[in-house]
Amino acid sequence: MGLGKIVVIGGSYGGMVALTYATRYPQNVSHLIAIATVPDFRFLQRAQEILAEKGTAEQQAIAQFLWNGSFETEDQLREYFRVMRSMYSVTYDPTDKSKSWDRTILSVDAINVAFGGFLKTYNILDDLPKITAPTLIIAGRHDWICQPEFSEEMAKAIPNADLRIFENSGHSIRADEPEALLDAIAGFIVYKK
User: Fold this and answer.
1) Collapsed DSSP state (helix, strand, coil) of residue 178
2) What is this structure's pTM?
């Protein structure tokens, strides 16, 4: 496409894609921004432990569809996110009737293929030192599914990595601290060479 070097940004599952791309094609990346993501499969067991400790019985039950990669309909996946919102966002207010959560594009196939398959063996941890671009790793302190300890591990493994942990965020940093997130990304792209 003749783009030259590009800024690669991804969050959560998209962050795994961004990290993998940057390890395979480091010459194409000017900046890498990985938000609320992980380098390998270990997050799955840790998330199950956190959910068992902090989640409600309803959350633990509906999460079985996630762990098994067995969602059947988009409505079922939407119900999962409705039930799980308080785990994903520390600022979630159940009395807030805004439609912001409803704008999310959902893909049953993508979730099922990921959680029912390749995420169980996903591992690029040993490849992280291949990343040569300046890298910003952003984590939410209260992220139950892509826990900040894995972000800390990534920051140590990637040369030129900056780690930013948002203290008042869960997995949904864009909902919990949107202005701070945009400021961090913009500042990194403009000032980090």
Assistant:
1) helix
2) 0.92
The per-residue pLDDT for range 153-173, each reduced to its tens digit, is: 999 999 989 999 999 999 999
Q: Check pLDDT > 70 for residue 193.
A: no
The candidate with the shortest Cα–Cα distance to 42, out of 115, 141, 122, is: 122
Q: Phi/psi zone of residue 12: left (φ > 0), alpha (ψ -120 to 50 degrees), beta?
A: left
Q: Which two tokens stand for residue 177?
A: 């601290």
Q: Is 90 exposed, middle or buried (0-12, 13-18, 19+ CB in 10 A)?
A: buried
Q: Which residues contact 48 (CB under 8 A, 6 or more apart)?
A: 63, 67
**Tens digit of pLDDT for each residue in 21-37?**
999 999 999 999 999 99
Give me the half-sphere count of Cα atoms (radius 13 Å) on the Cβ side of residue 173: 28
Question: For the chain, which residues make up each domain, given as ranges?
Answer: 6-40+125-191, 43-118
User: Domain 6-40+125-191 classified CATH 3.30.70.100?
Assistant: no
pLDDT digits over 2-23, tens only?
778 999 999 999 999 999 999 9
User: Which residues are CB-neighbours of 60 under 8 A, at least 6 positions away?
Assistant: 51, 52
Q: Are 62 and 145 within 8 A, CB to CB?
A: no
State residue 170's pLDDT score.
Answer: 97
Q: Beta strand pairing status for 6-11 and 135-140?
A: unpaired
Give the 3-state secondary structure of residue 76: helix
Q: Which of 33, 180, 190, 48 is nearest to 119 (CA)?
A: 48
Residue 139 identity: A
